[in-house]
Amino acid sequence: MKYFRSVVAFCVVLVMMAGFAYPILAQDVRQQLVQDSTLEQALKRGVLKVGMSTFVPWAMQDKDGKFIGFEIDVATRLAADMGVQVEFVPTQWSGIIPALLTGKFDVIIGGMGIRPDRNLKVNFSTPYDYTGMSLVAHKEKAAGFASIADFNKPEVVIAARIGTTAADAVKKYMPNAELRLFENESQTIQELLNGRVHAVVASAPLPAYQALKYPEKLFLPLPENFTKEPIGFAVRKGDFDTLNYFNNWIEVVGSEGWLKERKHYWFETNEWEGQVQ
Known about the structure:
Belongs to the bacterial solute-binding protein 3 family. Residues 1-26 form the signal peptide. Its main location: other. This is Amino acid ABC transporter substrate-binding protein, PAAT family. The chain is an alpha/beta fold and 277 residues long. The protein has two domains: 38-130 and 229-275, D-Maltodextrin-Binding Protein, domain 2 (3-Layer(aba) Sandwich), CATH 3.40.190.10; 133-219, Periplasmic binding protein-like II (D-Maltodextrin-Binding Protein, domain 2, 3-Layer(aba) Sandwich), CATH 3.40.190. It is 44% helix and 19% strand.
């Protein structure tokens, strides 16, 4: 009986020790997670590495080879508010999520639509912008086309960038058309200008910009975007400290009107056009 009481007392002591130790252990784990977060690593490094892919007017190079565009402004302001430098890491869109997961950069800020299939691989911030799919067509090949139904035919060829929501939109809304995929938007536009495809589907405002740039060959058959999608920053899964900072930053700069002002400049004016090659 005496032995049994000793064992019980010993177990009680162990439970009490575990009870005291658990909060300490949990606190250590939380502190370690903070130290290992992308946010803390960027602060220590003094540089925020941003993965992006070029497409007008989100991100592009000016005449001197410097990156400019809406996403460039967003990433530059984000880094400045963190007190660090920004380093842009141009990446092919088709491989941009794998590059993030392998640590080639800290965050994707590249007009990435928030989608459930992507969310299985990365965590998204709250939306900092909304965009939609638009369509620019060849005046001769698509003469008289004025609706999605006009393009949803087997004899119609549509170009889009590989791995984008534009390609998904073509499959969903124009499943009967032939879809041709290219690595970047400039290739799709070149195919359209050469008359090898009827139309290009891409995120607004790229189609409108191309129609204004080449009015003799291209036109906008639809009066407005035919989809709407939220755009967010993408980070590696489980990095909640970084995600919390990004979400709050988006809320702050959105509330002060800065995001709206930058979007107006890049998407609704052509004041920047002279800077581009």
